[in-house]
Amino acid sequence: MNREWPGNENGFTAPSRHAGLLFNRLLRPNADAAIDFHTGTSGFEVTAFNIASMDVPEIRSMVELYPVGQIFDNHIYPGVLHNAFVDAGIPSFCPEVGAARVLDLEMIPLFVEGTMNVLKHHGILAGPMGRTGKDVGVFLGNSAVPVVATQGGFIEHLVKLNDKVEAGQKVAIQRNSFGEVVAEYTSSVNGEIAGQRSEVPSGPGDPLVFILFKKAGPVGGETYPE
Q1: b/e per residue 43-79 (b: at least 16 CB within 10 A)
Q2: How many CA atoms lie within 13 A of 208 on its CB side?
Q3: Is the whole-model pTM more than 0.85?
Q4: Are strands 191-197 and 44-46 parallel, antiparallel or unpaired?
């Protein structure tokens, strides 16, 4: 049902109808605030980060309680659950807990600690706060640029997740089956690595790297390949 929210109870597809029933009759009527947990897409490693509309004070106050390295401040991805909540006036955001179908025993505790902080912030649990974004020097970006493959071949990454990069810096090279370099890929912005393709074979159009950065001027309307 991802990309179907808030759905339509009378929609043309089963996922749309199911999302509409869940959102209208269960989720929205019972939520004062919501956390929409996700992982990255298949074949892609991602950092520990939150996607949030940081211009909404109630959302910002929750997101800043997570001791994760990055915040993606952007009203992105129409059809995802956390944005459906926000559109309904319910503060919500989306933690991205690493790669899909991977048990990351170092990353998961960061989101547990942040979520416990949120529960304490709202008075649901008692106790002292844990670490927050300030304690880990969280990087706040408002846009992300993908580096997309132009050739077919095997990818070798030259940077790691969370690395800072500069415009013009080489981030990956691609070789053919004979080991010859067929393409080199560079960053177009100053920012931090937020995601990397984990599958070595890649073809034209495959996203290889996502770079989180601070975009000057208006943001929104971006599309991101998956």
Answers
A1: ebbbbbbbbbbbebeebbebbbbbbbbbbbbbbbbee
A2: 29
A3: yes
A4: antiparallel
144 to each of 31, 57, 188, how far by Cα in Å?
A: 30, 22, 11
Bridge partners of 153, per DSSP, are: 202
Q: What are phi and psi of 118, to 5 degrees?
A: -65, -40
Pairing state between β 181-186 and 153-157: unpaired
Q: The tokens of 69 are what?
A: 């390295």
> Per the structure block, which two tokens stand in for 135?
């304690």
Nearest-CA neighbor of 220 among 83, 108, 89, 94?
Answer: 83
Phi, psi of 4 (to 5 degrees): -105, -15
Closest by CA position to 5, among listed 36, 41, 49: 36
pLDDT tens-digit profile, the chain (226 residues): 888 999 999 999 999 999 999 999 999 999 999 999 999 888 999 999 999 999 999 999 999 999 999 999 988 778 899 999 999 999 999 999 999 999 999 999 999 999 999 999 999 999 999 999 999 999 999 999 999 999 999 999 999 999 999 999 999 999 999 999 999 999 999 999 999 999 999 999 999 999 999 988 666 555 555 5
